[in-house]
């Protein structure tokens, strides 16, 4: 906290209010505007909350101008190179990297709680075979509260942590079951001898009639993608989890709401949008035409996977994932015209003055979509994979919010632009 403050004066009435200036460890200082309505009678207006700090958090820091992303102070580059997803999840939840004993205990908890209740499997029979996996995931995750209702005392710290563990553990099993249902194959049980990403790949791609060996390349790439997607500060889905959680709702309802928010094409659906865009472009010869369409403000076509609302320079995650993208394409030896198209689009766009001047560089969604496709993961599952990775971030923010002794239910204000007060007119007089 800082002793600094600002004075806001209403030039119409001459009234003033002193507004405290709050300073965090890193980043912009924040003006505490709570006193404005009481002293001056005004609310603040910030559509999309682009300049409003909705909470205090110790989990993730982003400096979009400098391309910096820190989890609990650790640069994403260091975590991507040295850590793994489970260790990163522990870091997000507990605030520190685990020692050997803590890591072994946490890993064992996650590994041994991956199974889902047998009755839960019946939920999938109620979905059409062509239902989008995200729609199934929202419903099934929300229903977990019906199976663990005896452990949902929101005032019990142990219940909170057990719920967090359950969510991280069971999401891969649920995700794989969504995929299996969509292709008409039997749901595969998890294996405790496999790590987090290996287990997910096994449950997605193995079948009962033959042995399946998890590709180390695929597991490594998936592990990296999950680290890069684990948390990203107060984005739409994380803020949704916090807002729903502020009502005292159970954690499964909160995460289900986060999944719903993530499904939007402007958020987690962006990597799915990249593949859709590449399909629309069709071939390398069409790239110049579509780049011109992207520059035309009157044309509805958008270049998906380029630029980022937060990062004004470059997305640090994209720098990491670009290298892995090329490694996966080379090591898998997959021959697909779409990969050639994606790499050529990247090459041409990075040389185009229009995109360079506006710093519209490829972001993490551009490369993650290409990697997922190379690993054999269908487009409909892209956002599901994102949700899996982001679950550790969501539960970390939920736990942080629940631990806040000053927490209150979220209640945004509005600028009313409708009709003024008027009198009712009877039907026969209208």
From TrEMBL:
<dbReference type="GO" id="GO:0036440">
    <property type="term" value="F:citrate synthase activity"/>
</dbReference>
<dbReference type="InterPro" id="IPR016142">
    <property type="entry name" value="Citrate_synth-like_lrg_a-sub"/>
</dbReference>
<dbReference type="InterPro" id="IPR019810">
    <property type="entry name" value="Citrate_synthase_AS"/>
</dbReference>
<dbReference type="InterPro" id="IPR010953">
    <property type="entry name" value="Citrate_synthase_typ-I"/>
</dbReference>
<feature type="active site">
    <location>
        <position position="308"/>
    </location>
</feature>
<dbReference type="GO" id="GO:0005737">
    <property type="term" value="C:cytoplasm"/>
</dbReference>
<keyword id="KW-0012">Acyltransferase</keyword>
<dbReference type="GO" id="GO:0006099">
    <property type="term" value="P:tricarboxylic acid cycle"/>
</dbReference>
<dbReference type="InterPro" id="IPR036969">
    <property type="entry name" value="Citrate_synthase_sf"/>
</dbReference>
<keyword id="KW-0816">Tricarboxylic acid cycle</keyword>
<dbReference type="InterPro" id="IPR016143">
    <property type="entry name" value="Citrate_synth-like_sm_a-sub"/>
</dbReference>
<dbReference type="InterPro" id="IPR024176">
    <property type="entry name" value="Citrate_synthase_bac-typ"/>
</dbReference>
<feature type="active site">
    <location>
        <position position="365"/>
    </location>
</feature>
<comment type="pathway">
    <text>Carbohydrate metabolism; tricarboxylic acid cycle; isocitrate from oxaloacetate: step 1/2.</text>
</comment>
<keyword id="KW-0808">Transferase</keyword>
<protein>
    <recommendedName>
        <fullName>Citrate synthase</fullName>
    </recommendedName>
</protein>
<dbReference type="Pfam" id="PF00285">
    <property type="entry name" value="Citrate_synt"/>
</dbReference>
<comment type="similarity">
    <text>Belongs to the citrate synthase family.</text>
</comment>
<dbReference type="InterPro" id="IPR002020">
    <property type="entry name" value="Citrate_synthase"/>
</dbReference>
């Amino acid at each position: 906290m800082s002793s600094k403050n600002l004075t806001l004066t209403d030039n119409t009435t001459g009234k003033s209010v002193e507004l405290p200036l709050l300073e965090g460890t890193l980043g912009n200082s924040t003006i505490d505007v709570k006193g404005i309505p009481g002293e001056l009678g005004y609310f603040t207006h910030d559509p999309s909350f682009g300049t409003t700090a909705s909470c205090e958090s110790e989990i993730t820091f982003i400096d979009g101008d400098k391309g910096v992303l820190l989890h609990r102070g650790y640069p994403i580059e260091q975590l991507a190179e040295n850590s793994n997803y489970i260790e990163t999840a522990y870091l997000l939840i507990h605030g520190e990297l685990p020692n050997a004993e803590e890591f072994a205990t946490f890993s064992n908890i996650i590994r041994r709680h991956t199974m889902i209740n047998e009755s839960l499997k019946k939920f999938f029979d109620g979905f059409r075979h062509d239902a989008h996996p995200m729609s199934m995931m929202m419903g099934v995750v929300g229903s977990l509260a019906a199976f663990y209702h005896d452990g949902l005392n929101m005032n019990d710290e142990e219940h909170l942590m057990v719920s967090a563990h359950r969510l991280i553990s069971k999401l891969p099993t649920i995700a794989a079951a969504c995929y299996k249902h969509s292709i008409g194959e039997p749901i595969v049980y998890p294996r405790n001898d496999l790590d987090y990403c290996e287990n997910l790949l096994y449950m997605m791609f193995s079948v009962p009639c033959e042995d399946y060996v998890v590709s180390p390349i695929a597991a490594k790439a998936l592990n990296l993608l999950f680290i890069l997607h684990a948390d990203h500060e107060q984005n739409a889905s994380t803020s949704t989890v916090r807002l729903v959680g502020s009502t005292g709702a159970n954690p499964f309802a909160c995460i289900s709401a986060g999944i719903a928010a993530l499904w939007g094409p402007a958020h987690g659906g962006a990597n799915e949008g990249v593949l859709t865009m590449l399909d629309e472009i069709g071939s390398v010869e069409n790239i110049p035409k579509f780049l011109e369409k992207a520059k035309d403000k009157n044309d509805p076509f958008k270049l998906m996977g380029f630029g980022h609302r937060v990062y004004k320079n470059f997305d640090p995650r994209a720098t990491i994932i670009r290298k892995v993208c090329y490694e996966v394409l080379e090591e898998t030896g997959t021959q697909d015209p779409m990969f050639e198209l994606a790499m050529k689009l990247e090459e041409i766009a990075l040389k185009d003055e229009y995109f360079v001047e506006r710093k519209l560089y490829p972001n993490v969604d551009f490369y993650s979509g290409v990697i997922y496709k190379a690993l054999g993961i269908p487009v409909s599952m892209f956002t599901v994979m994102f949700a899996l990775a982001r679950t550790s971030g969501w539960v970390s923010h939920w736990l942080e919010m629940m631990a806040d002794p000053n927490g209150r239910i979220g209640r945004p204000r509005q600028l009313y632009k409708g009709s003024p007060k008027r009198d009712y007119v009877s039907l026969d007089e209208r």
